Amino acid sequence: MAFFNLLLSLLVNALYVLFILLLVVFLGFCLYIKYTHMKYDHIPGPPRDSFLLGHSPTFLRIMRDGGVLQDKLLEWAEIYGPVFRVNVLHFVLVNVTCPDTTKEILMSSKHPKDKFLYKKLFYLFGQRFLGNGLVTARDHEMWYKQRRIMDPAFSSLYLRGLMGTFNETAEKLMERLSEIADKNMEANMLHLVNCVTLDVINKVAFGVDLDFLNTKSPFPKAIETCLKGMTYYVRDSFFEFKPKNRPFVKEVREACRLLRSTGAKWVNERKTAMQNGEEVPKDILTQIIKTSAAEEKMTEEDEEFMLDNFVTFFIAGQETTANQLAFCIMELARHPEILEELRKEVEEVIGMKREINYEDLGKLVYLSQVLKETLRLYSTVPGTSRELAEEITIDGFRIPVGTNLMFSSYVCGRMEKFFKDPLKFDPDRFHPDAPKPYYCYYPFALGPRSCLGQNFAQMEAKVVMAKLIQRFSWELVPGQSFEVLDTGTLRPKSGVVCSVRHRKDDI
Known about the structure:
CATH 1.10.630.10, 4-stranded mixed sheet, 3-stranded antiparallel sheet, 19 helices, 13 strands, 53% helix, globular, lipid metabolism, membrane, monooxygenase, iron ion binding
């Protein structure tokens, strides 16, 4: 009995000590949060939902209701001005819409991508995702080495050589739409352009022809799952620990593994071909392999590093272009007068020919304006962020070194002070003679870390849209919403379901 009482006493004392330790840790955490508030509360911003959670409950409510987080940031930017703070647990994010600061920070290489976002994208729920690839690498020297090696795959000369693939893959879409029109079926345009952009990136970047338009594949679903998982992983720190979310977390991990295992297979096949002296294209896959060619002995980390870039290009090379195309198709259906103006240009530049030349793209000026306006209103990658390398002052407010600055092209693109009547779809904003937006329009980011594939993406988009306008008329099926779905990237929530007709039937 005495032994039992001694044991019970020790247990009680241990629990008491543990309680005291937990209390001390909690109080220390509260003091740290209070210090953070004192450090940043001179910067304007919305009232916090709670002392500990900051604005996290607001963000989680928006996600739960299927809203767009960027719309809330737009609302706050209109209320609090060109610089405002947001609290997420013990992190502070400072949102900036000041064009001069946007220029100063994004055009410089001394401010790294912020660790709050980009470090998180290394993994998704414990499964390696983007790792240290071209988009997520925070170290400038590591990024610069990758960018220098990748540049040849995006040179003007190489892009000219891709026109055949752009035309060939777009023709497959035209054939599919022709079948849909003949059968009076409805076309989910988001799904179809997703298949097209996936076909293009796989063929021109990795030398693989999978024909997603005509075959079932797990890749589109895997990409969508990864992006959705990324949104929850970044914005909700407790998501993976909730029992009800375990099936989805498992699905996200499996999707990541599918992309990386596919990459490993394709990389090994290309490496074997290169080792055997076979002629290989100067595409992205070859450039990815070259990033580690200088190593005398490949380590496991080097192999994973190659797969980081494979997944980066596999997703980034199709997702944003597909969403831009879908939004463009949606807006043209809502604005028949703009579509008619486009038809006149396409008929004048291309006529009835099936093969669009590189030289034709430069003549499609109004189509360029339409695509730019689409990205202003629907910036498919809403923004970017940087970690401040030195203290600066924005609009009279001191911003401490180490602060995470958020820049949103979506927010700036919808602000009245930058674009008159901002919710109106008006391609004339980007007329060659119109004043150019001053550091408030950056759908591909700005400066040295701007999107490497932006010319690739816009060439592809032009070829697809020109052929679509040349051959077909389309109307939105009634009952759809025009809302935006936020999955990290932005896409049309309705899928842009259309009824499609041959142009010849309208004549």
